Amino acid sequence: MDLNFTAEDLAFRDEVRAWLRAHVPAAPLPSLETGRGFAAHRDWERELHAAGLSVVSWPAEYGGRDASLVRWLLFEEEYHAAGAPGRVGQNGIFLLAPTMFEHGTPEQRRRYLPPMASGHEVWAQAWSEPEAGSDLAALRSRARRVPGGWRLCGQKTWSSRAAFADRAFGLFRSDPDARRHRGLTYFLFPLDAEGVLVRPIPRLDGKPAFAEVFLDEVFVPDEDVLGEPGAGWRVAMSTASSERGLSLRSPGRFLAAAGRLVRAWSERGAEEDVAGRVVDAWVSAQAYRLATFGTVARVLDGGAVGPEASLTKVFWSELDVRLHEAALELLGPGGELAADSPGAAGGGAWAEGYLFSLAGPIYAGTNEIQRDIIAERLLGLPREPR
Predict the structure, then answer these.
(1) Among 232, 249, 247, which residue's Cα sits nearest to residue 136?
(2) Based on the domain organization, do 256 and 368 belong to the same domain?
(3) Tell me, what's the pLDDT at 348?
(4) Does a structural domain hold residue 208?
(5) What is the CA radius of gyration of the chain?
């Protein structure tokens, strides 16, 4: 791993920094968990795309800049340091797109990647079900073969931003007689298709951050199967590997948050026990950065993210919680107030960030499941009898 960036890498970083300084909104956009905020964030995605910055590591033919993964990491560092808006298209850009590059057909890539890059089509992830969360292989939603395609039936839940998204990707059981991890197929489908019902799930603050999706004989043509029929588990694990190990939570996010925490501590001062937690968060963010550059170096040398992604996922999700807990302890009662409350410290951002961080050990595969993977696939420990 070589962290001596080239002159071209540094020029790219400076270009990104200058553009963000000139274009990041002075005031935060409305919450993207609301209809108005979702539309505002979609407009921001279009502005990024017009500048050639929405998907810098993608091939130019799909809206990218053919930038290396190293430059993508530099972009992410600058993006979060600038306090730029959240990526409303992250499910598509960071999860589906890497899977489509690996398993999709040329026609699928031509059809879906450009509007994904521009923000014209936003994707939701339709994986979890009421009785199949971490145990995804227990899913019951089914796909039935019909002339020219498939009919999908079932229920998906906790689909992030599905209340406002355009399309979804998900797993369905296409062979009910196959073993749990077999007979699954990965489908792409529009959320406004006949037979699809999207029901928002509001959070405690009333914002519909999630939705449940009901499918009743929804027709999906053969060309919207990603990968081979029956091989959906292997395709899905490609998505999960990206989600856990590299693309979904880049180090830039935690570097920026740790930097804000250090500044808050410098401005306020605090007892030594809080100072120690601030230092731990900052050091952990730096360690995550170095580990991610190591992963990128391995991928560029022809390797894969692999089961090490589970280590990464446990690390960044628990770092996020520790970092926000330190912030709330530092800020005192004002740090726990929502943005619209008088006296909210930090504009309420730390309180909202803390609540979101609590979901980190759950989404992308619970940390309990990740520790099973670490034990079995990395440490070679025996599987628990079932």
Answers:
(1) 232
(2) yes
(3) 81
(4) yes
(5) 21
